[in-house]
Amino acid sequence: MSDSFDQISQQLKRRHRKSARLKWLSMGALGLAGLFLLWFFTDMLIKGLPAFQQAYVETEISYSEEASTDARQAIDSDLIPIVSRTEIRSIPRLLRNEPDLIGSSETLWLLANSQVDQYLKGQRNKLSDEEIATVDRLVESGQVTQKFNSTFFTQGDSKTAESAGILSAVVGTIMTMIVTLAIAFPIGVMTAIYLEEFAPDNRFTQLIEININNLAAIPSILFGLLGLAIFINFFGVPRSSPLVGGMTLALMTLPVIIISTRTALRSVPESIRHAAFGLGCSRWQVVKDHVLPLAMPGIMTGSIIGLAQAMGETAPLIIVGMVAFIPDVGASFTEAATVMPAQVFTWASEPEKAFVEKTAGGILLLLTILISLNASAVILRKKFERRW
Amino acid sequence: MNSMNSQATVQTPGQSAERVEQQTPAVGQPYTRNSEASHDLSIRVRDLNLWYGKSQALSNISIDLFQKNVTALIGPSGCGKSTFLRCLNRMNDLIPSVNISGLVEMDGRDVNAAKMDEVALRRRVGMVFQKPNPFPKSIYENIAYAPRMHDMVSRKADQDELVEKALRDSGLWNEVKDKLHEPGTSLSGGQQQRLCIARAIAVQPDVILMDEPTSALDPISTATIEDLMDKLKEQFTIVTVTHNMQQAARVADYTAFFHLGEIIEYNDTKVMFSTPAQKKTEDYISGRYG
Prior knowledge:
The complex is a heterodimer.
Chain A: H1 5-48, E1 53-62, H2 85-97, E2 105-111, H3 114-120, H4 129-140, E3 144-148, H5 151-154, H6 167-198, H7 203-215, H8 220-234, H9 242-266, H10 270-278, H11 283-311, H12 315-319, H13 340-348, H14 354-384
Antiparallel strand pairs in A: 1-2, 1-3
Helix pairs in contact in A: 1-14, 6-9, 6-11, 6-13, 8-9, 9-11, 10-11, 11-14, 13-14
Chain B: H1 17-22, E1 41-52, E2 55-66, E3 70-74, H2 81-88, E4 98-106, E5 109-110, H3 118-124, E6 125-128, H4 139-149, H5 156-169, H6 173-176, H7 189-201, E7 207-211, H8 219-232, E8 237-241, H9 245-251, E9 254-259, E10 262-268, H10 269-274, H11 279-285
Parallel strand pairs in B: 3-8, 3-9, 6-7, 7-8
Antiparallel strand pairs in B: 1-2, 1-4, 4-5, 9-10
């Protein structure tokens, strides 16, 4: 006599309750993660968005004879504590380079002091009551206002918060990534092709395989030590340069590229290889003409993700000297440079309040680039996805 | 057969294993009985043994395959017929654990010799697989790829001509002539398989191996392929593996019956299906096992 429906549903009730409980637990975990993410993004946006605005002062500069030695003579003495010191300091240099200007005058929007900027943004500041009164007056007359902070995108780092920009770090990142990709992509892809398509399955190749997988799990700072010991101390590659940074990061990106390439190669169906072999293709022709084109989207996706990982890396670069104060935009691969996460790190350790928003702004820019890189990887995968 | 001594047992059609033992084996002799045209030898196989690791998959296979004929290999699953087929163009090289001994001779050359380039061999012995596997490229490119790779064509016009000929020979031309640049994978299953045949004949091989070419197809596509095989044997030697005995009876001139890695019987198809010499063959053909 088998169980009736009632008996069966009695037993089922317990199972259904259990699955419902698990479902709620997993949804709760997802919700929590989403909440944290939302919190993080809102916090970053609130802190970082002001970095893209900066206070400017409309100032009349009179290029008098005295101004070429004492810049403070060039502008209204009331404005001196309000205008950025870097702006004032640049006047004598300008006059030395262009003596024709002496005697003339012009009205320009100059960067305001970071204290003024922080005051306008409602942050803590060190302005005296007198100076606050001046600023308030100037704001009313429209002589002090907040504008889009182009300095942030067109200048390198600076010790004065208002004129600190991220350009040198962006250029440094681009150069470093070019080196990383130029080294890691060909070596990684060729290694994966050899291991997947050519290598015999023996102890030796298994050992290599295990080591590659372990390489992906090594703390990244160790790669920095390796870079220091081998690239800088042994081969004499200039330290702090995008070249040595890129080489170090390439070591870190290699396993990611190798593993993703192997996965992509393995996903190409065996029947395609058989068809090609059956026609008399050599092994290399099978790979080059049939397997590689089909695996390319997967390889590209993996490489972009590896690159994005390398782009966000700071620890190994500390060791090879790329986390440093670099005010100039780099011009070559062998000159000292810094990268975006390193710039964020440098700013985060500045005591001045005005650097907090620079830090958050830098993070926002870095995140935007990383998210767009990852998005392009997803789009690439979706676009070329093939069903067999 | 298992109890046989080390004497070479050559399977020429019309001779069952026992008969061979009694007679002097007609090694390499073209088989002409029951046939008006004299059939030239295409591939000669002697004492072929094959192991996957430690398990033996083929034992003492000796057989003559004749030019411009269809030879069908039949037998129950796992009897070694596909493995044997892959010995003929060395596709078994791709499996690392395979060991082979014995002779597979084509055009007076041992195909397993170290000097033999498997690429050259596969250029002369084409293959069609069980599941249609066109390259994910255009129909045109599917066919033009191999001749271009083998430097058979240099000018675009020659290439066009070759593609058209291969498609006409495989009976696909009228169906695809207006969409040569659409992907090969957009065709129906039967059309894809004929595309694979066209791809194989485009390099003008001597032999075409077919590994259950119709097992993934519907009956109408199967009939089309069978007709095609009948036409193609005017130009090519065809060796086909099939699970379907009716198909063997319909298309094959000769049939070899495999069982547990040995050839039990090899004969003219008509003879084999009407008066099989071996009890095992009779049992298999009449559907008692398989």
